[in-house]
Amino acid sequence: MTPQNTFLEGDNLEVLARLAAERARFDLAYLDPPYNTRSDLVYDDAVGRGRGRHQAWTAALRPRLEAVLALLEPTGALALSIDDHEVAHLRLLLDEVVGEQNLLAQVVVNLNPKGRQLGRGFATSHEYLLVYAVDAASCVLDASTADTVDERDFGHTDEASGRRFRLLPLRNTNKRFTPASAPTLHYALHGDPASGRVATTPFAGSEEITPVFGDGQAAVWRWSPPLVAERGEDDLVCRRVRGHRGERVDVYQRDWLHEGRRKKLTTLWLAEEVGSTDTAVAELKDLVGHVFSSPKPTGLLRRLLGTMPADARVLDPFAGSGTTGHAVALLNAEDGGTRTSTSIDRAAPLRTDSPAGRTALAAGHATVADVTRARLRAVDARLGGGLVCG
C-alpha cells in the first residue's frame, strides 16, 4: 500500500532532480517559498538587498519552479503562497515559466483578520495564492467547493419530490448577449403560467414567450431548444411577473439542491473559511508544540486540495511545518480519498531569536526538516495512512 505521506530531506532542487530521474509524477504542487522579507520567520528568508534582493530571490526560485513544472502532469496545477513583497515579481516569473495564459486565479487569503499591528502604515491582513494550470485547456482543477453551499439559498420545495430548489431566470441577464450576438438562442417558447408548464411547441392553454429584458429590449435564452426539450418538463417553470412595462410571462430554471452540490469559489478566501495564522499555530501546537512561527492553516490547503481529484498526487517542495501532508491526511480521513503527498525540506538550522525557534530547540528539533518530520510522524500516529522518510 502506498503511504499517503512521504518526507524527503535535502535541498529541494537536488531532491526534485532525483524525483525526475525516478520518473515521479504529480497532479498538484503547492509552494510556500521564503517570502524574502527579513521578518520574524523560523528561517532566514532574505537574500540580497534592494532591487538586487528581488533579483536574487527570483533567480533562486526560477530553477525550482522549472523543476516542479517538469514533474507535473499536463492536466495538473500549481499554487504558490506569497505576500506583497514579492507578488509582482512572482507573477512575472510565473507568467514566463508557466505561461501567462495558464493563470487561473490570484486569490486573496485573509490569514490575519486583525491585521499586522507592528510597524507603520496599513495593518496588512492578507496574503496571496497564485494558481496556475500546467495547461489551462486540459487542467482538471475544479474551482468550486461544497463548503460554501448554503441551503438557505434554495428557498422553494417541490411538493411531489420534496426536493429544494431556487429559481434562476432562463433569460440571459447579460446585455452583451443579444439576438445579434447569439441568434440561435433567441426563439419562442410556449408556457402556461397557471400550471407553470414550459415546452418548445404550443400546447393547450399555452401562450408564446420570447426573451426580453425588463426595459422591453429583445434578449436571448441561456438554453438551446434541444436542451429545453430534454430538461424543460422537470427543470423549467413559467410565471407572470410585473416589470417597468407592465405584466409579462417569464421562464425560470429550477436549480436543484442535491448531494455533492458545489459552488464556484471566489478569489477572496476569508479566515473564517480556511483558517488563519493563529489557527495554524494552534493546529501545530496540538501535534508537536509551538515550533514554527508562521505555519499555514490546514483549511487553506484542504480548500486547494478539494479542487483536485480525490486521488491527486501532491508535491510540496517548501514543506516548512508540514501543513500540506497534514491537510492531505485530514481530507483523506474525511472523504475516503487516496491522495498522497510528497514533502521536501532541508536541514536548515532553526533561528533561536524567535519563541518558536527556542521551543523547537528545547523539544529536540534543531532544523526545519526536524519540524516537518515530527509533524508528519504525529499526523501518522493520529490519523494513520503511513509515512516514509528519506
In short:
This protein is an alpha/beta fold and 390 residues long. The chain has 10 helices and 18 strands.
* Tertiary shape: elongated
Contiguous helical run count: 10
Low-confidence regions: 39-44
Identify the strand order in the major beta sheet.
15-4-5-3-2-16-17-1-18
Number of strands: 18
Distance from N terminus to C terminus (CA atoms, Å) equals 17 Å
Written description of the protein model:
The protein has 390 residues and is an alpha/beta fold. The chain is built from 10 helices and 18 strands. It has helices spanning 12-21, 50-71, 87-99, 225-235, 271-274, 277-288, 298-305, 323-335, 355-362, 368-383; strands spanning 5-9, 26-31, 72-82, 103-109, 127-133, 144-145, 156-157, 164-169, 189-191, 198-199, 207-209, 236-243, 246-256, 263-264, 268-269, 313-316, 340-345, 387-389. The strands form 4 sheets. The chain has a 9-stranded mixed beta sheet with strand order 15-4-5-3-2-16-17-1-18. It has a 4-stranded antiparallel beta sheet with strand order 7-8-13-12. Helix 2 (50-71) links the parallel strand 2 (26-31) and strand 3. The chain is elongated, with a radius of gyration of 26 Å. The protein starts with a strand and ends with a strand. Residues 39-44 have low confidence and may be disordered.
Name the features:
single chain; 390 residues; alpha/beta; 9-stranded mixed sheet; 4-stranded antiparallel sheet; 30% helix; 23% strand
